[in-house]
Structure prediction request, 354 residues.
Amino acid sequence: MSLKLLKGWLTVLGWTWMWPVSALPLSPGDRLEVSIPKDTYFARVYEVNQDGNLEVPFVGLVPVSGLEPPEVQAKLSEILIAQKFFPPQRLQLSVQMVAWAPVQVSLAGELFQPGRVLINDPKDNPPTAISDTSRQITGSNPVQRYLTTAIRAAGGVLPTADVTQVQLIRQGQATIVDLSGIFSGQPIQDLPLINGDQIIVPRSERFQNELMRPSQITPPGIKVFVSNLTVPATSNATSAVGNQQEGITFPYGARFSQAVISANCAGGINATNADRRAMLVRVDSLTGKTTTVERQVEDLLRASTNNEENPPLFPRDGVVCYDSTVTSLRDRFRSISDILSPLNPILLLINLFK
Prediction:
């Protein structure tokens, strides 16, 4: 049975066609050098154009997008011999990579920032300086043009992602990749990408705490907004909360309780501060819906045992602290005392009019 016929039968049966993954397929913008001894017409550096073709003199457009360099070498040799530019068995043609271009891929599913991303950007990978005495180096290793890099560029996977069933779709054909080895230390198949690839990360049936740590496909850290404008600290500055415009940084996997401690909401005099409260504010980036979780600080620190009682922090969460009942009552009496004070500006103004 031919490969084409087998693919057709699998499609009829409703199964996904598993295409063989190339090692380093070409994309628009990739540059390669064609070398032919004593040739001045075809030997040069070519760049794959926006349609995925090489523009070869006297030959025209040669489709190469998705092919590996050895396949391009074989294809060019066949064309040049077929068009009688070189006699058979006499052509010595070599194809070598010069540079791999940035590619744009689309990502959807259980990701912090699904959408379209650009990977292998030269600005993120500045070339290493080579001295004039060094000989010319051919070849290029696109370390930032792989599946894991694209997922990281989309913010990383959510704790609800099924990393064993990540789907890569290329030109209508799909393959399934298991990336769970990133967290267990087992080998994975980190696939190289070409321009226009689509990645889908499906949803798992459960919340997975094991995914809540820095890795190749999760965020290294997150920004969280915290506020503690009450006793024991009267301002964010004196509470050592550097709450800048983008928030403060926590390692990915940090919990609500750790943000409370970082904001100086805990500790102090037990009799006056033990019943302080903290609130976690979260805004869904897709729906805009705001949800809140409020906990007693001491219960959060001492009695939390699961995700509901002590939720993990997500990017751009907010944590707010409120004072204890004792401190609130003291401040109320202090306010009444300030109003009734003979030196209060309001009383001075009333006495002036009298």
User: Anything to note?
Assistant: Residues 1-22 have pLDDT under 50 and may be disordered.
